[in-house]
Amino acid sequence: MRDSTIASLSARRVWDSRGCPTVEVEVRTAGGAIGRAIAPAGASRGSREALDLRDGGSKLGGKDVKGAIAAVNDKIAPVLFGRDVCDQAGADAAMIALDGTPFKSALGGNAIVATSLAILHAAAAAKETALWQHIASSYGRTPTIPLPEIQIFGGGAHAGRRVDVQDFMIMVPGASSLDEVFEITAEVYAAAGKIMAQKGKSVGVADEGGWWPMFDSNEEALSTLVDAIELAGETPGDRVVISLDIAASEFGSAGKYRLALEDRELDSDQMIALLGGWLDNYPIVSIEDPLAEGDTEGMRAFTEAYGDRVQIIGDDYLVTNAAFLKEAAQIGACNAVLIKVNQAGTVTESVDTFKAAETAGYHCVVSARSGETEDTSISHLATGLGAGQLKVGSFTRSERMAKWNECLRIQDNAPSCVFVAGQPLVKTWWGKKGN
Ligand code: 2PG
Ligand code: MG
């Protein structure tokens, strides 16, 4: 164990996968341990998540982060100097107190999350242990290799709203290893590309590297995904299943949903019926944000109708917040939660939400953001917590592949760490098919 006292902490400006500025924080301990982490950025954000501090103005679209960097260097660093990096909760609480606002808008969610994750890395380095191992031992967890959720077509706010639905993904709960998941996913991704090219609809990729959704309807994306799974030599609903992020807050509010592509407006009940039809007709096992974040009654009704056969994830709806999750559990809204560290703002609050989810019997999916970097902290977080599932975006582009490849490295270095294929999805449509 190296001396884990914080000797220096500073931020620099780096760039994310959309070419936008973001914050990297580097922490050094007296014993020479180094921890480094970069803040990601969402495009479809919940209204109650931690707020990034952006400079505004006309330069760089108002997205520069000089204020957030100054917040780390001038305000956070003096408060954390001399603390022990192994006291994650203490460091996070100190930043929350220093910020003093409900959505971390004073120091910036980007400043705080990069610092919180850098401290986590520094603690692992001080203990001379892998990050996933440090997480597992700190929080008393049994590590597992997560089941990936991988995007084939983008959509919504990540694809110029070409279709309303944001993520058309596959999961391979029938795979026997992570290698097999990736092999099958690579085949499905390539098959989807071939189909798009044959149809003359191959025009590039969306924000997370999934194929651009050159479709005439949301449902055409679903049927094309089924075709791609078949072209890859798989039987849809057998080893390979579909997962959707509707991201309904992007096109719905006050109980009204505007499907731009199909030029029609649905109320909450009609939206539930539309999605219910998709669940009947396609091998979908997981559906995220099916209703808008303010449509609590819709979310409850959808969960009552379909919660026994499909995973229903709250993302914009729950924003990695333990209190919101407990409220949702009380009324029976959703049965799973997305864990995004930058929505909560700190590692400690994210783990609190994870624990609240587990107590409530909710599944957990650790997730990247649409604006990402080479930072692989979430691969370790998903493994170390034994979260069960990991959502990173597509199966192309290095800000995505960095996370998938890190899972392979973790697996090689952790022979006792099992892969959790299918396990989190036992209550689902896939499970009911008798697989
Ligand atoms: C989501 C994420 C990732 P964003 O909605 O789950 O797909 O998107 O980071 O833009 O919120
Ligand atoms: Mg989402």
Question: What do these coordinates show?
Answer:
This protein is an alpha/beta fold and 435 residues long. It folds into two domains: 6-128, Enolase-like, N-terminal domain (Enolase-like, domain 1, 2-Layer Sandwich), CATH 3.30.390.10; 144-433, Enolase-like C-terminal domain (TIM Barrel, Alpha-Beta Barrel). It is 39% helix and 19% strand. It is built from 14 helices and 16 strands. Helix 1 packs across helix 3, helix 7 packs parallel to helix 8 (296-306) and helix 12 (377-385) crosses helix 13 (398-413). The radius of gyration is 21 Å and the shape is globular. It starts with 5 loop residues before the first strand and ends with a helix. The model has no long low-confidence stretch (mean pLDDT 95). Bound molecules: 2-phosphoglyceric acid and magnesium ion. 2-phosphoglyceric acid (2PG) binds at residues 42-45, 166-167, 245, 247, 315, 367, 369-370.
